[in-house]
């Protein structure tokens, strides 16, 4: 593939076949060749673009982690309410439901009222 790359590319090459781009080392070589052909202002603009992409990716990862944490907490809360509801349906006393689930008297009373 390297020989094909060297044979098919020169200073006038503007596109490269997908088959060549599928080889990571060749794709990197093409990127480096493009970067070395940039003017200083084009290189600055390109680096700025890469910085923005990197920042956006970091923000997306942070938002995903935050959403995962919120989702897990909400799931645990729903499970607690489901357990309390099940206990109340079986006739377990409110103070025991409170002790076992950590819910307040008001929360348990609301669940009981919804049965």
Order of helices and strands: HHHHHH
SS-derived structural category? mainly alpha
Quickly count the helices: 6
Largest sheet: none
The total count of strands amounts to: 0
Beta-strand percent range: under 5%
How would you describe this protein?
The protein has 6 helices and no strands. By secondary structure, it is mainly α. Helix 4 (40-89) runs antiparallel to helix 5. The longest helix has 50 residues, at 40-89. It is rod-shaped.
Question: How are the SSEs placed, and which strands pair?
Answer:
Elements: H1 2-8, H2 18-21, H3 24-36, H4 40-89, H5 94-101, H6 105-113
Helix pairs in contact: 4-5
Structure keywords:
rod-shaped, 115 residues, mainly alpha, 6 helices
How do you describe this structure in short?
This protein has one domain. Helices cover 79% and strands 0% of the residues.
